[in-house]
């Protein structure tokens, strides 16, 4: 097979991934160039590029990594790449990861609060009523990558203090839906507290 055809096949394989990345942006869950997303392929990890808005992600600027975090294609991977690599190595059931700085989950992150024991039924079904808070470590640091991966061994979402939130799933479509529900949950909890005068 010629190199040209190999490139075309690889590009076509990421069209769905790019579509859901763009939806994240259009729904207001991925402001500016923030956050990152990835999917597991049979032989590698495909992750969004550093410094590129999810609105602008195309198959050409998806970066491929091996399962040790080394580039196997051109491009600069997200600075959070080792967080993704570590999660995939810990969770063979996970095929997609979304980490974003959406408004309401970022509010929980800045306040240093987990989301637990919510009456919202989707939280129980999708996350077993458990979205823990991960203590602050600098973005892109080995400490953050290791701690997030450790926490996500036993749950499918977490809030990173001062940083945003992360969700794992079996597919990128499912990850988008789960992230959207989690952001909705955070919004409703904040609005409830406002209504009750707790804020």
Précis, in short:
The chain has helices spanning 3-12, 15-26, 81-90, 103-111, 121-127, 142-151, 172-195, and strands spanning 36-40, 45-48, 62-65, 96-100, 115-116, 130-131, 133-134, 157-160, 164-169. The protein is α+β, with helices and mostly antiparallel strands and 199 residues long. Strand 8 and strand 9 (164-169) form a beta hairpin.
Describe what you observe in this structure:
This protein has 199 residues and is α+β, with helices and mostly antiparallel strands. 41% of the residues lie in helices and 17% in strands. The protein is built from seven helices and nine strands. The strands form two sheets. A seven-stranded mixed β-sheet has the order 3-2-1-4-9-8-7. Strand 7, helix 6 and strand 8 form a beta-alpha-beta unit. The longest helix has 24 residues, at 172-195.
């Amino acid at each position: 097979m010629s190199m040209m055809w190999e490139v075309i096949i690889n590009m076509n394989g990421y069209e769905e991934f790019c579509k859901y990345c763009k939806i994240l942006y259009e729904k207001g869950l991925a402001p500016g160039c923030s956050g990152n997303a990835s999917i597991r392929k049979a032989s590698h990890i495909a992750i969004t590029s550093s410094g590129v808005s999810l609105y602008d992600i195309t198959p050409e600027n998806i970066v491929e990594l091996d399962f040790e975090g080394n580039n196997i294609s051109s491009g600069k991977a997200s600075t959070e790449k080792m967080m993704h690599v570590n999660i995939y190595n810990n969770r063979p059931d996970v095929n997609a990861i979304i980490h974003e700085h959406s408004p309401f989950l970022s509010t929980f992150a800045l306040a240093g609060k987990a989301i637990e024991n919510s009456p919202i039924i989707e939280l129980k079904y999708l996350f077993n009523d458990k979205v823990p808070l991960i203590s602050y470590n600098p973005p892109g640091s080995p400490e953050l990558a290791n701690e997030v991966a450790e926490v996500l061994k036993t749950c499918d979402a977490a809030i990173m203090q001062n940083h945003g939130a992360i969700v794992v799933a079996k597919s990128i479509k499912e990850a988008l839906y789960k992230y959207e529900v989690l952001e909705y949950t955070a919004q409703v909890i904040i609005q409830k507290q406002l209504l009750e005068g707790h804020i």
